[in-house]
């Protein structure tokens, strides 16, 4: 196949994936909206005291997480959820194939400009979700993952679209492979972490309201979520994977910058926002260990840190100029 | 008393959290406003456009956020807090590692995570089997009569401490680099040379402890600069390859070596690196006065303004009488747009042209005020004509002077840098990452086991465990221990199943 044919095959695969994701999104939404039977039991209250709250003697930091409530796998939405999961698998394979075709057409890694980063990130988000779903039932999370994936792909094919082509010299380095690959995996992990954090906040709100007798929060969407405490734990886990990887991505970028521009850190806007993101997630990890900041407040910090990540991803390239403009040599 | 309170407050987690927030927030203006360090020209433009506002911003440090006192205050407080938090914790943890795991609480069955089982072995044997299993899994185990305490995951705290301490080292490395390092920029035209020892820099920012005499005495000549651009397609004009061929003289008296400098491929000489950071065109201009004598002949560096390399040029001929100045554009691929005027359509020199305006009068060079070579002060000058020239063409001014556009060479911009702290910074960062990995992946857990003689022989065993880190649980450890006790039965009778408690799934 010629390079141009591969490139247009790649575009076709990305569009096919978007269509598949769109259907998956509708099915995920419908299966969430289907009425769930039964009442969602509240999570068990945390037992014991935290070691930081000055518990003496035997301190228990975390109570065992209650077993999954039966309502998490509600009957009516279940089939729909399965269909949507299968569609998500299919769509992810399509995006993955699109990336491979793009890479073959240009003879390099398929993440050399904003369009390609975005398609690769959409793949990473989706893949992170699917990998996690291998070990547990995540159908309830599907909607919160597929929506950002579709948004990312939508931005990619419209605003950010770039024809297949060679790299600008500034990007022509093996550090591109290492640094950007790490950043793309982080995008996937942070995005799924954010979805879990949002789910946690919804579940937590619902549990509080239900315990105060609210009808509204006791029905519908929120009841399909696992207990808040479990969501919090899942969000934490994925952030503890993503944060060191982000640290690595930033360090790899610094080494690259040293090699390309002669300084490993220069407070270029891209670097500044990478730093803000990093400090934001460090604050999240700290908040979880600080009395009075655990739980909802820590979750909000994680969302703010993710906002910084997004600003770095799209905002800095589009609105702020710096060395990382992927345009060419700095003047 | 007050000092104690202040210290306690400063080193609390809450303060650390607050300072982390402030650090993130304080960085934001650094990405919004142009910074002197990276883009002095943009700062000057800002100052010129809106002097009143810019002056206030300037006083607040908005154009030098990362060097401002308030930014420094935040990170210094943070690092003091860090030291004050981490050093005592290191001492504490050192003690914890050397002390024995705490004795079993009285009522193990009141802990949320516990198992009760019966074993056909006598208590001492059961405890020995439990201890053996745990030691094999690298727990620290203490047995006393009838009970066992065990703990694992000390490396979590070690990792955390190492991570935080490495951040302190990183800060020191950054300081070392900025005090003892330097960075200079230089523009070199094809065919001309640069000598580092005589510090022919266009701009230089040395660290406080750096003197340019420390520079190794190398020099190099830019023999040739080549640039390739994408032709055709949506990305037409995008750069594809840049390459500077230089002759390097590593130290005076040595013979020149041929080297190439490319983006991402710096030249390294004795710990100093030379980076290719920009390029452009330098048209060659000759000016003869009315008598035919050459009053100016040079290749003039023109500053690229856009992706097509529309470049602005300034020529000053102080030896002409009256003094002569030229302003204008060098256009590698010249086009005249009805609304935009002359510009360059493509960055490669496909169709070069020089558009000039000539000024006569006083160049203002004798006032003693420093002047930029890229700016012409026309306050005391009169425009005498404008003209578009192709290579080889001449232009005769009303007074008989002749300006000729002889051709062009390319120039390359290089950054020359040395950072004595970078190896230490890299080492600190690698150690920090290792510590972070440990701290976030290891879970710290404690287990206890109590065995007492059962009425019908054998023993009654209670196991309990707690996790001492985020969202971990000791459940699987308890399950494994229970299974191990199960399989280490000495007698051939089948094992008794767990009685009650949170049984293994
Ligand atoms: C430069 C600023 C700092 C950064 C980037 C930073 C980063 C981090 C990170 C990423 C973690 C997560 C690792 C883990 O959970 O074990 C952490 C944990 C921790 N940090 Fe910091 N930190 C900073 C300053 C401080 C300061 C000033 C203190 C003390 C007041 C502190 C005390 C702690 C403690 C106690 C933990 C352990 C939390 C836990 O057990 O989960 N840190 N820090």
Question: Which key phrases capture this entry?
Answer:
heterodimer; A: 331 residues; Four Helix Bundle (Hemerythrin (Met), subunit A); 2 domains; 65% helix; flat; disordered C terminus; B: 505 residues; alpha+beta; TATA-Binding Protein; six-stranded antiparallel beta sheet; 9 helices; 24 strands; binds protoporphyrin IX containing FE
Short description:
In chain A, 65% of the residues lie in helices and 0% in strands. Chain A has helices at 3-33, 75-106, 114-133, 142-157, 174-211, 228-261, 269-288, 296-319. In chain B, the strands form 5 sheets. In chain B, strands 4, 6, 10, 11, 12, 20 and 21 form a 7-stranded antiparallel sheet that branches.
What are the SSEs and their pairings?
The complex is a heterodimer of chains A (331) and B (505).
Chain A: H1 3-33, H2 75-106, H3 114-133, H4 142-157, H5 174-211, H6 228-261, H7 269-288, H8 296-319
Helix pairs in contact in A: 1-2, 1-4, 2-3, 3-4, 3-5, 5-6, 5-8, 6-7, 7-8
Chain B: H1 2-10, H2 13-32, H3 36-49, H4 51-59, H5 69-98, E1 114-119, H6 123-136, E2 140-144, E3 147-152, H7 154-180, E4 182-189, E5 193-195, E6 203-206, E7 219-229, E8 239-249, E9 257-261, E10 267-269, E11 272-288, E12 294-299, E13 303-304, E14 311-317, E15 323-331, E16 334-337, E17 341-344, E18 353-361, E19 381-389, E20 394-396, E21 402-418, H8 422-441, E22 445-453, E23 459-467, H9 475-487, E24 500-501
Antiparallel strand pairs in B: 1-23, 1-24, 2-3, 3-22, 4-6, 4-21, 5-7, 7-8, 8-9, 10-11, 11-12, 11-21, 13-14, 14-15, 15-18, 16-17, 18-19, 20-21, 22-23
Helix pairs in contact in B: 2-5, 3-4, 5-7, 6-9, 7-8
The structure holds protoporphyrin IX containing FE.
